[in-house]
Design goal:
The protein is an alpha+beta fold. The protein has helices at residues 7-14, 19-27, 31-35, 92-97, 101-127, 147-153, 255-271, 285-292, 332-335, and strands at residues 38-40, 46-52, 74-80, 82-91, 157-159, 169-176, 183-186, 198-201, 208-213, 218-234, 241-247, 278-283, 299-303, 311-315, 318-322. The protein has one domain. It is 27% helix and 29% strand. α1 (7-14) runs antiparallel to α2 and α2 packs across α5 (101-127). The longest helix has 27 residues, at 101-127. It is globular.
Amino acid sequence: MQDRPKFQELGVQWGVPDAPTLLTSLIKHSGLLQTATVKPSNFGNQHKYKYHTELPMGTFREFGEGIVPKIISGTLATIDLWDLVALAQDDAEFIESYPGGKDGWIEANLPAFIEGLGQTLAAQIIYGTLDTSTIGGINSTVGFKGLYQYAKDFNQIHSLTTTNTTNLTSIFIVRWDENDGVQVRVGGSSRLGRDLLQVKDITPVNPALVVQDTTTNAQLPVYSWLLHCYATLVVPTIKSVAVVNKVDSKIYDSTANIQAFVNALNTAIDEIEATNGQKYIYANVKGKSLISGLKQDKLTLYRADMDYNNLIESYRGIPIILEENILSTENNTFLG
């Protein structure tokens, strides 16, 4: 299998300070971020790419004959990168009294903040600007479009039949490829090295005062660090993502429901089928459990060389990856 650029490799290649530690914290609880294809943007805080509506035609010629030039129609698309940020901040007196002072405090607390960035990024990649706050997710009405929204645009969402209207989940089938499949594009450059994930001490010498109460003007001295990275999701072709939604335990109520589940999975896989790229099925614990209930002649189990040596499944040869940012609380109102 061809190696693909991922967060881990990109950070090491760029020489990001403490890359293994920082990027492990960023991706450790997201199967999607662990398997995503990640490349730098080609135009600063924007990424430009061209997609074609038709292919150029080749022709045969005899020696000595000329070749008619072909001009193909194409569209240049530009997509903005978004700034994903978090502010690590605490009482200056507490930080100064912490073992190791400022350095000790940030070393102890940085992994949690970076993991929070990773969870936010993964949720954005999945649901985009859909407001999931009412069903236990993150209110992400700003930022870039997500996989669910692209699948809907492509008319590649397959809804199962269920009498339940709440506590539903979705299963995502994604093809990653740095040319014509799903890609995460990040800001920065290999020359600068530190732009993939930045941690800035914005109170390097003295603490800053933060107003705690606008009525009394009570102020708290704090030390602060700004964490941020630039990222966006690029989905250039229809053979990139498909979704099976309204998934719940009702799929095992009858043989017909089981067959409908299998048909939906197969159709979604067929929709992203291509000779290049790496395909994955993403599901949460509930979704993985339901897939695992299918007949064993449709499901294979194998020991994969991944973090924690998790036992994972594959369906039609496509690895099924656990992604905890896919919700189990989707409902008909949210799904539309």
